[in-house]
Amino acid sequence: GAGVSQTPSNKVTEKGKYVELRCDPISGHTALYWYRQSLGQGPEFLIYFQGTGAADDSGLPNDRFFAVRPEGSVSTLKIQRTERGDSAVYLCASSFEAVVGYTFGSGTRLTVV
Amino acid sequence: GQSLEQPSEVTAVEGAIVQINCTYQTSGFYGLSWYQQHDGGAPTFLSYNALDGLEETGRFSSFLSRSDSYGYLLLQELQMKDSASYFCAVSSGGYQKVTFGTGTKLQVIP
């Protein structure tokens, strides 16, 4: 597509529930990144995919967070047993190979109540 | 790990020039990027410096000094639409992992 698409744009969920956030990168971009941004802060790195594999998942806060990219295109970030502290905007970005100059999606605003 | 410091807020007058500074500490440094983010919007890539010196892109310029671990973003002929948050970000490590600073909120006033 023309840009990075993230769905849903907003998600409200109850504490303890499971959520999935979807990212559809720019066609042909092999590198995909997930970041999390809290209010007034910069994006915080979560995970990086090169193709289908997670090349760096060092930013995932704990084992409740998991991400997949099974066909090297669309990626899903999965959060189990959500907590109120998980509330943030989850940003996805893609780039061709691992060059600088990411293109970000508009994000999914997750609110855990 | 990486750390970046930039001012939290800057106010400047429409038509003026403003400089947003960034200092960083990191290992395996490759380069310094700048991103713009309007409220509620996605971060948008502005510039990247891998070598010392000034890079100019229209009204925006970015500078890097690797020896001082310092860079800045210079915005000229400020417009109201430039009101946004600006993030410096370092690329480091094997695949040039990008780590963002906490951002500088720029307010342009008439």
Number of helices of chain A: 0
Question: How much strand content do the residues of chain B show?
Answer: over 45%
Count of runs of 4 or more consecutive helical residues of chain B:
0
**Number of DSSP-assigned strands of chain A:** 11
- Low-pLDDT residue spans of chain A: none
Helix content of chain B: under 10%
Quickly give the structural class of chain A. Answer: mainly beta
Can you describe what's shown?
The complex is a heterodimer of chains A (about 110) and B (about 110). With about 110 residues, chain A is mainly beta. Helices cover about 0% and strands about 50% of the residues of chain A. Chain A has no helices and eleven strands. Chain A has strands spanning about 5, 10-15, 20-25, 30-35, 45-50, 55, 65-70, 75-80, 90-95, 105, 110. In chain A, the strands form two sheets. In chain A, strands 2, 4, 5, 6, 9, 10 and 11 form a seven-stranded mixed sheet that branches. Chain A has a four-stranded antiparallel sheet with strand order 1-3-8-7, with no helix packed on it. Chain A is globular and about 35 Å long. The N and C termini of chain A lie far apart (about 35 Å). The model of chain A has no long low-confidence stretch (mean pLDDT about 95). The radius of gyration of chain B is 13 Å and the shape is globular. Chain B contains no helices and eleven strands. Chain B has strands spanning about 5, 10-15, 20-25, 30-35, 45-50, 55, 60-65, 70-75, 85-90, 95-100, 105-110. Chain B is an all-beta fold. Chain B starts with a strand and ends with a strand. In chain B, strands 2, 4, 5, 9, 10 and 11 form a six-stranded mixed sheet that branches.
